[in-house]
Amino acid sequence: MGFCYKPIGVIHSNYKQRVGVPIQGALSKDSRGWVEVKPEYKAGLKDIEGFSHIILVYHFHLSKGYSLLTKPFLENKEHGVFATRAPKRPNPIGVSVVRLDSVKGNILYVSEVDIVDGTPLLDIKPYIERFDLRENTRKGWIGNRLKNITEHHADHRFD
Questions:
Q1: Which of 4, 42, 122, 152 could form a cystine bridge with 106, CB 3.0-4.6 A?
Q2: CATH node for 9-128+135-146
């Protein structure tokens, strides 16, 4: 069984290629961009300005092929792709939480962006802390590496 999705818009940022894109937008507060929603979907944006953050679901359009084992950010050992956030996946779907700064018509101005310019947008959902934030979670292999994490940018490991 196959699936076919139609993009509802395009995500824009200052990042024209994968190398140099922030890894995890929450670590890059100054990273800005905008989301251009196709005019036929504009009505679906009603009341979105009431949310401080939104979840963008998108297609990793620059990803070629995939690996079931990968060396992710903060690690030199291989892990299963489903235990990472690596972009080279069997279904190249990305998910990012971004800050919603303002809305002007069908354009959403956002920050904390970790997405390449021109990325096809599949969906938008409001981030709702009460529903989306979990406490007492296990951190898997990344565990203690999160303590001293700072802003990082993508390298060539997923070319």
A1: 42
A2: 2.40.30.70
